[in-house]
Every structure is written in C-alpha cells, then in structure tokens.
UniProtKB/TrEMBL annotation:
PANTHER family registered for this protein in UniProt: CYTOCHROME C1, CYTOCHROME C1, HEME PROTEIN, MITOCHONDRIAL
Principal location listed in the UniProt entry: membrane
Gene3D superfamilies: Cytochrome c-like domain (1.10.760.10)
Pfam families: Cytochrom_C1
Coiled-coil zones: none
Natural source organism: Durusdinium trenchii
Protein name: Cytochrome c domain-containing protein
C-alpha cells in the first residue's frame, strides 16, 4: 500500500523538476560588443608608474598614424617637454607644424612655425569638414579618451586589433569595416595598424601591430593623466604615513593605559560610601 502512495508522489516530483529544468531561465554572458580581455598593462598596478619608453614610442605612432584623423586639443607640446622627449626635440617637432596666428598689426591672420606653448594641431578645421572626409563620422578627440571610455585601456587595445573579416550573413556596405569590439560590429574607421613596420622606432624595438597598439594605448593613458605618477606616489606616501601613525598611536595608548588594567575599582572611590555595597545589602 505504501508503495502505491509513494510512486505517484515520486512521479509528480520528477515531472515538476523536469518542468522547472525546461522553463528555468537560461543565462547568456554574450554581449554586443563583447567585453575586451583584461590585458596586463603595467600602469594598472597600484605600485607601478607609466612606461615612459613605451609612451615615447606611442607618441610616434600617434603622430605618424593616428594624427591624420584624430585630434588632441587639450594637449600642448610643452606637456611632453622633458617628460616624454627632451625639450630640444620637442621644439623641432613643434616647428615642423604651421600654426595660424594673429591678427597682426594689419589685422590679418598669418602662419608661423609652431612653438612649445601651441596645442596639437587638429587634422580638420571644423567638425563638418571632419564628417565630410570620413563618410559622415566624426573622429573623436583622444585627449582624455582612455578615462572617458569604459574599460579604456583594454577597449582601445582590443579595438585596434579587433578587425576581422565579416562573418557569413553580415553585409558590410562601402565605407564600413567589421570590428568585433565595436558596438554593432561595423566601424567607419579603417584599420590604422593594418601591417607591421608602419613606424620606425628610434630605440630599435620591433614594430609589430601589437607593439604599436600597446605603445599608443600607453601614450593615450599618459596624455589623459600626465600627473598620474605624482598622484599615485602621494597616495602611497599618505597611506604609509597613516600606517606608521596608527602604529605609534596604538603603542602610546597601550603604554599609557596598561597600568589601569590592574586597578581594582571600588564604589567608595566614586561615591564616598564608608562601606561596600555588599555590607549595605546585608544590613538591609
């Protein structure tokens, strides 16, 4: 009899569990675009600073490859002087650009060689010209792009190396390119690092696509936060000072109050009673 009662209950439980398994919500971690991998950039660590040799190479990549479309209006040549390159070298680079200045005594604008106080020149005179030259897309300014973009370092590095042939079923019209890490998969920027050897590094580093992507990302990270190293150093000094101060205060507190642990506190010490509470309780 018990077997007859148990078997239907077992069948009902099995069917309920099967139904729950069928209708349970499925979890999907696929995103559009997918999250870029977590690359081990040296600057990410709390105890590490910028790689200045990589930043120097990244500036060459930006100047020779990226500056043809992207501007950096918030960066001046003087910011790189004696930090990324020597002052003499930065003066030579600034003088290689023609800057529109003025007006002069006659009220006219004129062109002069660039100097250290000048900002990086923009590749286009205005936004409309930039959109017209790039099929309606306006190339973003890269001054603070690594901090303004979510997962800035990893995203830019993955984007530069994420150009692929479009999969079957995806039509790519003229002027667009397929990139795995760009929202929607179609980007208007052609592959800027399409081959190795686009830049001649002065220090003899092999100029591969991944090396150029790493260097330009490090340069953009430095450009977004030039005071990153000083800020991190001050934070470490403050944390160390707080740790030492906590140890000193703790040692002083213990040395001052260690004698109080052996004190015997009596009621008459506070209230002036001639007898203890126990005697008073017995008398009553």
């Amino acid at each position: 009899m018990w077997r007859r009662l148990i078997r239907p209950g077992t069948a009902v439980a099995a069917s309920a569990s099967a139904a729950f398994a069928v209708h349970a919500p499925s979890r999907c971690d696929d995103k559009d675009p997918p999250h870029p991998p977590r690359y081990p950039f040296w600057v990410k660590s709390v105890f590490h600073a910028h790689e200045i040799p990589s930043v120097r190479r990244g500036y060459e990549v930006y100047r020779q490859v990226c500056a043809t479309c992207h501007s950096m209006k918030q960066l001046h040549f003087r910011h790189l002087s004696n930090f990324v390159l020597p002052e003499k070298r930065m003066k030579e680079i600034a003088a290689s650009y023609d800057v529109v200045d003025g007006p002069n005594d006659e009220g006219e604008m004129f062109t002069r060689p660039g100097i250290l106080v000048d900002a990086f020149p923009s590749p286009y005179p205005n936004e409309e010209a930039a959109r017209y030259a790039n099929g309606g897309a306006n190339p973003p300014d890269l001054s603070v792009y690594t901090t303004a973009k979510h997962e800035g370092l990893d995203y830019i590095f993955a984007l530069l190396l994420g150009y692929r042939d479009p999969p079957a079923g995806i039509e790519v019209r003229d002027g667009l390119y397929y990139n795995v890490y760009f929202p929607g998969g179609l980007i208007g920027m052609p592959n800027p690092l399409h081959s190795d050897g686009l830049v001649d590094y002065e220090d003899g580093t092999p100029c591969t696509k991944s090396q150029m992507a790493k260097d330009v990302v490090n340069f953009l990270c430095w450009a977004a936060e030039p005071a990153h190293d000083e800020r991190k150093l001050i934070g470490l000094k403050a944390a160390s000072a707080c740790l030492v101060g906590t140890f000193i205060v703790g040692f002083w507190y213990r040395s001052m109050w260690i004698g109080c642990a052996r004190w015997r506190i009596r009621p008459e010490d506070f209230f002036g009673f001639p007898e203890s509470f126990e005697t008073m309780g017995s008398n009553t």
